[in-house]
Amino acid sequence: MTVETKSAVVITGNKAAAEAARLARVEVVAAYPITPQSPVVEALAKYIETGDLDAEFITVESEHSAMGVCIGAATAGSRVFTASSANGLAYMCEQLSWVAGSRLPIVMGCANRAMSAPWSVLNDQQDSMSQRDQGWIQLFCRNNQEILDTFLQAFRIAEQVKLPVMVCYDGYILSHTVMPVEIPDQEEVDAYLPPYAAHTALDPAAPRNINPVTLADPRLNGEGVLCHGYMEFRYLMEQAHQEALDVIVKADEEFGARFGRRWGGLTWSYQLDDADTVLIAAGSLAGEATISADMLREEGVRAGVLGLRAYRPFPADSLAEQLKQAKRVIVFDKSLSYGYGGPICMDVRATLQRHKMATDVDGYIAGLGGRDIKARELAAATRESIAWAAKRHAPKPTGWINLQL
Amino acid sequence: MGQTRDCNEMTAMSWPCVGEAGRTGDWRTMRPVLDPEKCVASRKNKIVCMQCWMFCPDNVITRTAPPEINLEYCKGCGICAEVCPSDAIKMTPEQGKQAEPTVMEEASCDG
Amino acid sequence: MDMTRPEQIEIRWHGRGGQGAVTSAGMLAEAAYYAGFKGVSSAPAFGAERRGAPVTASTRLANATLRHFSQVENPDMVVVLEDSLLVTANAVNGLGAKGYVIVNSHLAPEELGLSNGFRIATADADSVAEEIELRVSGVIMVNTAMLGAVAKATGLITLEHIERVLNHTFSPKAARKNIEAARMTYECTRCAY
Question: Which residues of A touch C43 (CB under 8 A)?
Fold first, then answer.
């Protein structure tokens, strides 16, 4: 997976995110501090102050304003970066939808953190999952090198399909954990990431309104041209998401050709080829699951892991293809759609049903609010799922890993 | 008529021009009527005051002496009457029929 | 000293909030990377700790890229920044039978009252820090000094690797002091195995 071409630095995931933003030559940074994201923007503020990054750091009084500034800057044609977590991300909620609808290629980091109440600064993925339907591309990372590389890919993807990208990485588990990260050369990044040309760039000689009130139905403009209604714009946004399924893969391929590292595009896998039991998760949890797969294989269970990089757009067809040989799929979600189940689990079930596959899919909720998850616990859950299928016909209820009620 | 994809836009945009929002004159229930005897610009035959021109939210009043109101697009909001310092513009009922515009020009975005 | 290198070494650090356990755990990962370990990581265990509350951090050293970052449960080594934590934080919990216990203590390894199965090393890093006046906000700091004890007790890293980490982490003046602390602690580390 990782080609050791040169020596790396040992840094946190937050630092890796900041390095990526610096290498991407972002022009405007606006962010509001929140644990565990804060060190990202602290690092960027420092780069800007020392002149290592030629950008404007705009201080704001809230996350809502931070994204407001990003919207303005991106509309005017700047490459823009911000980051947040949990309640901060929730406070941006309204603006997130605006960004996607405006088709602004803003890239933001989400250092995944649990939503309150009760108050928790620790990791799960409820924050980004709760913003799933805002129209953003969501990519998940499994280690700090992937964080840096994914941010660079994210700018490229965003600017190509004109959709914002949220790069999600687990708070603390990645954001505050140090590990070796190779920093690419600036010239190589420049070649991979040409300057951003905004489709909305303003021209004082030809003033225009951006995102005026748009009616339900198409209408003639003053020049007699029939313009989209709201629904047409939203359809185009969905088309861009479908296009992104290819663009994400290509961005990763071209990244690999240039930098010697590929991360799998939409998904990645571990011991999947002959696996009849497949563990699915996103982020660092999926990395942990690879250790579980090793444990299960030692017991004779043909286990493998399918890790999600792209959650939106959802790589449904790719997943169905890769799960053809699977008899059993166990999905581990670090978030919950309350009243039903884990969001990734629901999507996997729907995908397999649509492809008329009779694979069993069991769901587990894991690691909410920073509850540490061990590989042995994921392995135990997998055994439980297998045992349930052997004895019972009723659907297995969603399991909760290491619940101590 | 073409299809909406001919507009070639991925986000909602509009370019300010006459008639961008459609022929809004038929929204009007009250019409502004300018009394040249009271209007300062009309009396002096000079471009002065121009409060009506400045405040009209639909840009349908000309910066001329006398100011002319394009009733094809005037929605009848009455702001011009409200801001006129000389009380020269009176809002009068349309009496249920679409008034003949005082200025009738083809809508154009060139100007 | 065990110079053979297993596939993966898991280390748990015990300190109190403000003692810099998280920082030195990360420094150990970095030093080990310089020593040739391809996969290193160091993860703090965050909770609602405050200054003085017991904290831990997990360091993993491996010969391949690491795939998981959960907290270490069965460490091969524990590094304890204050000997009282052996009791209050049960610092040897889950430690393997031949695990290393490296403790900042003025006591000899045999005097700690730990199981004979462990490979125990002690270093009086407090005295070292006192002697060279290594203080932050008036409080003596032993976290970087204890890197010297880890080097002496395990041989996984050398003083040169530690020096390299400290040199790029601190200002030249602070680096010199921390390097001196690590070196002196290295010298005074007592190993009972």
Answer: 172-173, 176-177
